[in-house]
Amino acid sequence: MVYLLSIFLFSCWAYLVDKNKIYKLNLIIPIMLIGIIFSFNRQNQDYQAYLEIFKIPESYAEIGYISLVSIVKELGGSHETIVFFLGVLVAITFYRMAILTKLPALLIILYMIFPMPIDVVQIRNTFMVLFFINSLIDFYRSNIIRSSIFIFLCICFHSVGVLYLIFWTSLFFRNKKYFSYVIKIGIVLSFIIVPFAIKALLIYFNTRTLSAYISNDIKWHSIFIWGVPFLFDLFILKLMINKYLYDAERKKLARILYTILMVITLFMPFLLYVDEINRLFRNAVVIKYFLACIVLPSVPKLNRMIFISYLIAFAVIIGIYYVVQINYDYIIFSFPE
């Protein structure tokens, strides 16, 4: 309840930011507070595990996180130093997103509802997502070198990061005439091929590690929770981009973000068998929010309010789904004494 109350207070503040068109100090303050929540969190489901990982990161983490831990240790820091750095990165990233949209309040509110409570827990995943978002922003700004550096960091901080390299690479082909057709055909083929490929893996390469990640049972609930809303969102956002978005710069950014979401759909059949793929679609929620906040200012008021209501409802429902597993109040009641 405390966390939900904090979201309400943030909403009131952020609404005033939008209402009065104040995009500097008053925008920075709520973003800084989100960063502070990350920076000083000292109790969550993975906190103790990360304290152990900090001692011997080579036994679990990827090279990027191992290197960060080594640097922090050399400077005399602790795991809390890494958490603080993550909070700073969160604040910087959301500021970079907020200044590119006319609806920064909506972006902040939606993120706080979901998936922020999960991102506070999964540190390496959050680093990966933040690096990827920064790479997209720099790609939009035509700074390919810096974008490449962020993608490299993305890969180094989580094993799933290699998939984000695929997504990023697809941006170089987004303007090709055949691109959308390849993606659509790829989605159809993936739904046909993946079930047979999964069964073949389990039959011929049935190892303990493989069995831990791949299920014999079809997980229909994953498709309904992540796949169906994802496809619906893509359909609606595509209509809005084509019908209402005329500003060239905003349309350029919108198409970059939409391309990423479109390529992610290629992995939708894996939701039926691999729990880890849920991570891709959960992380994509932030990109979806970002895209929506770029497109919605150009949409007629009634349609805009309907879609905003839907986005908030989605965030609340998926948040309730996760709150069964996680007590949101740890985010507030976990500051150091």
TrEMBL record:
Keywords assigned: Membrane, Transmembrane, Transmembrane helix
Residue stretches spanning the membrane: 24-41, 82-114, 120-137, 149-172, 178-202, 223-241, 253-273, 280-299, 305-324
Cross-referenced InterPro entries: EpsG-like (IPR049458)
Keyword Transmembrane: yes
Protein name, UniProt field: EpsG family protein
Organism whose genome encodes this protein: Limnobaculum allomyrinae
